[in-house]
Inverse folding.
């Protein structure tokens, strides 16, 4: 059996890999940071969601489209509220990631990531269905005035197309994505737990 | 000293050691380079948080250790397998010193995640106190672990040498 000291000698004799010149711009700009990669879409998503209701309000109240029904006002209120709440939640998730301390001791650091992934796992279970439900409630109310007075064939086609797509998106596409995401998060959490175990007392 | 100058000095001083740590952890040069870079991005972003409670070395190694540990395992398994195949194809008589070092990296990457980091720090001649500070493991526990890992690594290396 090779003596450990011999391995240590071997390690220390090894030449350090070629040192490239230090280019601060290159180091900090190249997006090798996993946390930053996770944070970026959350921040962009949060800002986009925050701005979306303004666009909806402009379309309904300030563009040439004339919509006056009370159901339309309620629908705009529901859509704006749901999307703004989603924006706040996305921002909250972004902040949770931002607060993970990269300089903490490994056990603590792993625990913070585990807490984050556990939060994400719970979040996707209740947040996505609720968001979908209320957004479609808003859209349903909005369509009441939009389709009023249109030929029945047009109404039926629109309802069938919209409802069909939404049901497919929720029950088939959404469930598949949700299951995949849950499996991925569980995998990550199991892995983190495994590493955490390694740090414990022997 | 300006933050930029300080960062450059820290990078020059610690990047070679961190690169070896990452190489020991992943067993793959390209992946190690990515982890090195990710570690130093975090160093740059967190420099204002450094309070001097620990040495720069401990603080930077801890960031690198966290970066390695939270890196998803799936990716490096693919690389390790590919490199193993390449190593297996090299005849014994052609294995020079550098290849022995490469073999050592491969053997380290066979250990459990935290063991890889601990043993790399031991090989880098870090004191037990500093390794304990970096990993957050008590010195007593660390001694037990290091004893076991040394034995395990020697066995793995010997088994590869016999191939």
């Amino acid at each position: 059996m090779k003596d450990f000291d011999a391995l240590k000698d071997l390690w220390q004799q090894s030449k350090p890999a070629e040192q490239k010149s230090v280019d601060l711009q290159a180091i900090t700009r190249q997006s090798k940071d996993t946390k930053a990669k996770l944070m970026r879409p959350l921040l962009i998503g949060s800002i986009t969601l925050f701005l979306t209701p303004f666009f909806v309000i402009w379309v309904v109240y300030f563009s040439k489209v004339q919509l006056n029904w009370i159901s339309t006002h309620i629908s705009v209120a529901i859509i704006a509220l749901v999307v703004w709440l989603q924006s706040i939640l996305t921002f909250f998730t972004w902040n949770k990631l931002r607060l993970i301390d990269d300089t903490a001791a490994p056990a603590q650091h792993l625990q913070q990531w585990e807490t984050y992934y556990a939060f994400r796992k719970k979040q996707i279970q209740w947040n996505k269905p609720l968001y979908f439900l209320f957004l479609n409630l808003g859209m349903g109310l909005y369509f009441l005035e939009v389709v009023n007075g249109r030929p029945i064939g047009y109404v039926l086609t629109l309802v069938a197309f919209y409802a069909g797509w939404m049901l497919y998106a929720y029950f088939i596409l959404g469930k598949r994505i949700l299951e995949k995401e849950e499996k991925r998060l569980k995998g990550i959490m199991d892995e983190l737990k495994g590493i955490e175990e390694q740090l414990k007392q022997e | 000293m300006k933050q930029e100058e300080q960062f450059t000095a820290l990078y020059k001083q610690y990047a070679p050691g961190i690169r070896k740590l990452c190489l020991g952890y992943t067993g793959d040069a390209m992946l190690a380079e990515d982890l090195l870079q990710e570690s130093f991005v975090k160093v740059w972003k967190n420099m204002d948080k450094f309070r001097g409670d620990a040495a720069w070395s401990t603080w930077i190694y801890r960031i690198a250790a966290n970066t390695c540990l939270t890196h998803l395992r799936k990716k490096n398994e693919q690389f390790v397998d590919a490199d193993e195949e390449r190593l297996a194809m090299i005849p014994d008589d052609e294995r020079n010193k550098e290849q022995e070092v490469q073999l050592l990296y491969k053997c380290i990457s066979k250990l459990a995640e935290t063991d890889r980091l601990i043993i790399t720090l031991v090989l880098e001649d870090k004191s037990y106190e500093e390794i304990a500070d970096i990993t957050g493991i008590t010195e007593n526990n660390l001694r037990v672990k290091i004893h076991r890992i040394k034995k395990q690594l020697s066995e793995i290396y010997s088994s590869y040498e016999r191939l």
